[in-house]
Amino acid sequence: MMTSRPPKRMAIAIAAIAALRLMGAAPLFAADAASASRPDAERKAFQSFFFAKFPKVEKDDFGNGPYAVNAGMRKQWEEIMQFPPYDFALDEGQQAWEKPFANGRKYADCFENGGLGIRQTYPRFDAKTGQVETLDGAINRCRVENGEAPLAWETGTMASIIAYLAQTSRGKPFDISIPDDPRALAAYDRGKEFFYSRKGQLGFSCASCHVVASGERLRGDILAPALGILASFPIYRSDWGSMGTVSRRFTSCSAQTRAVPLADQDESYRDLEYFLSYMSNGIPITGPGTRP
Amino acid sequence: MRDEQAVSLETTRRMTLRLLAALGLYGIASPASADDAPGWPSSAFKANKQDDALKSLYGKNFELSDKVSLETPEIAENGAVVPVSVVAKLPNVTSISILVPENPYALAAYYKLPDGALPQVACRLKMAKTTKVIAVVESDGKLFAAANDVKVTLGGCGG
Amino acid sequence: MPTIRMKAAANGDVVEVQALVQHPMDSGFVKDSAGNIISAHHIETLVFECNGKPVFSAFWGPAVSKDPYLKFAFKGAAKGDSISATWIDNFGKTDTGTAKIA
Questions:
Q1: How many Cβ atoms from other residues are within 10 Å of residue C38's Cβ?
Q2: Are residues B58 and B36 in the same domain?
Q3: Which residues contact A35 (CB under 8 A, 6 or more apart)?
Q4: What is the average pLDDT across C11-22?
Q5: Which residue of B has its CA nearest to A252?
Q6: Same structural domain, B28 and B77
């Protein structure tokens, strides 16, 4: 019962052709010569697509996903936001963040500004490892470097801590940078390829739902546009009855589209998060969030 | 040691009696079973059908009234968490109950309003499938109600 | 960690109260990944008191959502007064929380 899907080469070719078209359009942005990098041009095109598809949605509202594009859903969300279910996680997160490690050092020692108000700059390209580092990864690296066991990735204390950190960044626009390093550009490109490639039994790519069918229903759910889709994380999903990080959502979505889920924080997922976050530069953080 | 025990037992007894009074135990038609919280109307909550729940709780029927406003979503974003809000423009409201007939047990929630409580309540309920939702308001001993339809479907993204 | 969070605000002579309670509210209809029913475990009563008097009482069945929410309003208290809430569930567990009316 496998649906036929275009070979991976063709998916790459499609992406490359799109990129070439964008490069061909570069002279239109000539005034912005310094920032007319390819990713920057691709980001502008990506955002223009969603601004055109959802003309009534304010730019700052894209971080609210399905609630930005459906009035009936929004009303329920506004009711729930009177007293959001992630409130308990916020308290737990702040307590966990402020508690010193056994060696006396704290999380705040590992981050600039004590980790507060910086969530919107993650993920980052780490020149030392040549890989993308997410905020989740940075938190666990801080723990391990200070003799603590790493936290589980999907929920629990990790989600509570990131909920707290996200809240200190609420309203700050995504500010992801791709440094002038071919490895960083390669990570961005791998993330982009992952986003547009069809996978699994159902042959869905992320774009199938979150670009092409964004704003439409998938059974009872409204599909969120990809623009700003990570801004609300971590989320309390009514479906889960608990908090979940980006790792929880990526792995569960892979499973739900009948693709083989990768391990939490697999390099491919980190590259995907890098690409998606960069595409959302300028969209304010709304996390932590609630979702159906 | 024995004095302390005596004091704490007495405190517990006083707290329990106050709690029972608070729950208006005397005003509830169906008693709690031995294991349930004091005052919890167990047979009303265990009734499958709407009529049995109402009979157990009130022993009478309701009439629909536009003085009861019931707000529910048209399509629930998730059947596990459906916001419900009731406001009644009626005098001397002593209780509000919310029924979800298509649920395994028809009675979802029951609220007792002492003097001073405004005739309104909002909460979040589980709905197993597309259903009517009925808010019943007890005013001067009579029952007035409003009913809405709520569509509940399977989620597509993890449902 | 306290299981009851409350926000109480006075608006003229009306006090509006919102409460969020951390509780699994298991309905007894859901199975775990091994296929076994998760027993019903839900709050049965949630009683609010202010100035020594009950001001609102909730009686809940398994159809109330997980981490339940409640909003109600009452007259007869003022800013600075204290309001308390106590829940009892079907396992006999209980907890109490308090908040000052803002």
A1: 13
A2: no
A3: none
A4: 97
A5: B158
A6: no
Chain A residue numbers touching B82 (CB-CB < 8 A)? 76
- Which residue in A87, A238, A241 is closest to C20 by CB distance? A87
- Could you tell me the CATH number of the domain that includes residue C14? 2.60.40.10
Task: Write the CA distances from A112 to A118, A121, A138, A173, C45, integer angstroms.
Answer: 8, 11, 12, 18, 47
Which residue type, as a one-letter code, is found at position C64? V
Inform me whether the C-beta atom of residue C29 falls under 8 Å from chain A C-beta atoms: no
Active-site annotation of A, residues: 253
Its domain, for residue B149, covers 48-159
Give residues with Cβ within 8 angstroms of B14, minimum separation 6.
none
Total tally of structural domains belonging to chain B: 2
pLDDT tens digits along A86-119: 999 999 999 999 999 999 999 999 999 999 999 9
**CATH architecture under which domain A38-292 falls:** Orthogonal Bundle (1.10)
Sheet holding B120-125, edge to edge: B68-71, B82-88, B120-125, C69-75, C14-21, C4-11
* Tens-digit pLDDT profile for residues B4-49: 444 444 444 455 545 544 444 434 444 555 578 999 999 999 999 9
Q: In chain C, positions 36-65, which contact chain A (CB-CB < 8 Å)? A: 65
**Could A219 and B156 be called an inter-chain contact, meaning their C-beta atoms sit closer than 8 Å?**
yes
pTM exceeds 0.90, yes or no: no
By C-alpha distance, the chain C residue nearest A239 is: C66
Q: What is the dihedral of CA B3, B6, B8, B13, to 10 degrees?
A: -160
Same domain as B55, residue B116: yes
How high is the ipTM of this complex? Answer: 0.96
Cβ distance C67 to A241 less than 8 Å, yes or no, reads yes
- Say which CATH number the domain at B54 has: 2.60.40.2470
Same domain, B115 and B146: yes
Which chains reach chain C with 3 or more Cβ–Cβ distances below 8 angstroms?
Answer: A, B
- Report pLDDT digits (tens) over B74-102: 999 999 999 999 999 999 999 999 999 99
Same domain, B98 and B132: yes
Judge if B54 and B97 occupy the same domain.
yes
Q: Which residues of chain B make contact with C37, given a CB cutoff of 8 A?
A: none
* Residues in B touching C66 (Cβ below 8 Å): 80-81
- In percent, the amount of chain A with pLDDT more than 70 equals 88
